[in-house]
Amino acid sequence: MSSLALVKRIVLAGVFALSMHAASAQTLPDDSAGRPAAPATGLNTDKVEVHEQQLLGEMRKLQGFITIPDTRAATLVQPDGRSWRDYRRGPLLWITAACVLGMLALLLVFYAVKGEIKIAGGRGTATLLRFGAFERFMHWLTAASWCILAISGLNVVAGRAVLLPLMGNDAFSLFSTWAKYSHNFLAFPFIAGIVLMFLVWLRHNIPNKIDVEWFKQGGGFIGNKHPPSEKFNGGQKVVFWIVVLGGGALTVTGLALMFPFYVTDITGMQLAQLAHGGVALLMIAAMLGHIYIGSVGMEGAFDAMKDGRVDLKWAREHHSLWAAKELAKSGDTSPHPAE
Ligand code: HEM
Q1: How far apart are the first and last CA of the chain?
Q2: What is the pLDDT of residues 62-109, one digit of tens each?
Q3: Is the CB of 143 under 6 A from ligand 1?
Q4: Ramachandran class of 261: left when φ > 0, alpha when ψ lies in -120 to 50, beta otherwise
Q5: 130 lines ligand 1 (CB under 6 A)
Q6: CB of 304 closer than 6 angstroms to any ligand 1 atom
Q7: Strand 309-311 and strand 75-77: pairing?
């Protein structure tokens, strides 16, 4: 905002406050404590204190007149902004805790009950190429930027309540400054990763009858039977669509927030912020599940994104149709790197 606009805004605020004060002093009787009482309107039949809240309830905005081109500067107070702030300081913190801590607790319980899902009879000797270098690059580009976006985003929502008391003002301020820069700049590699994943993996993620059967059989999580699956099973297709659609929604709302008021007004900004935070929280909960199963939750799964080659026995158990097709195509199996 230019300094002229700022001065005008301050003067406007002063004039407004003075006129409100003068009006109430002239027209309203004082109560016993010396506070002015509200006028008797249709809404307020009793003698009540004049509260800002009452004024705001009756006027959707406290607005003045200005002559500068930026007409938004005429709005001094917008009540929805307060509801938005109250939501962020209260319910949103609880929703965040439920999504992050609740999901972590669920995964801990799942791990305690089920343990690591093992390859039946242990690892074999042969491996099969599952993801090429480019697929692994786009996965880790998305995953690495997403992790920093998630941490820096959670800091915006809960950092003040959780980290500030632990870190103190200076450290929290430095951390938050870097977190904010990271959040803004890493949005771009994340968007690039989402677009690449969509283009490269779309053909493997069209839902079909095999997925329905996979879900009917509990995805192999219930009991020890592994339902047949192509390159991606039904559960992974759900992850793919959460990533693509969630990532798409985060991109649209995130860009609206990054370039304020270019495409929307204040209400739109508030809605964009609510949608951005809500989608991000759901996605964090879903991705915690994905990270669990892609690392400690399943023996042999991480190899696919480490060097691209998976144990043939693992491939036959979890992606039998894909493994059969790959073997028929190239027959390219090679021993584990360590053997
Ligand atoms: C940071 C920890 C992560 C680990 C350890 C991890 C691990 C893995 C592994 C091992 C696979 C291959 C599974 C297979 O061979 O069938 C995979 C696939 C995939 N990952 Fe990740 N991942 C991580 C984070 C992410 C993030 C943050 C995203 C997206 C925001 C993501 C999106 C995907 C997608 C879309 C797939 C293909 C579908 C699927 O397998 O579910 N990953 N990941």
Answers
A1: 65
A2: 777 888 888 778 877 777 778 888 888 889 999 999 999 999 999 999
A3: yes
A4: left
A5: yes
A6: yes
A7: unpaired
Residue 8 beta carbon below 6 angstroms from any ligand 1 atom: no
In the chain, ranges of CATH 1.20.950.20 domains: 85-335
CATH topology of domain 85-335: Fumarate Reductase Cytochrome B subunit (1.20.950)
In tens, the pLDDT along 309-325 reads 999 999 999 999 999 99
Q: Name the residue with the closest Cα to ligand 1, atom 25.
A: 143
Residue 58, pLDDT above cutoff 70: no
pLDDT at residue 6 greater than cutoff 70: no
| Residue whose CA is at the smallest distance from ligand 1 atom 7 | 294
- Give the 3-state secondary structure of residue 75: strand
DSSP 331: -
Q: Which residue has the higher pLDDT, 226 or 169?
A: 169
Tokens of 288: 């915690």
What's the CA-to-centroid distance between 234 and ligand 1, angstroms? 14
Rounded distance from Cα 128 to ligand 1 centre (Å): 18
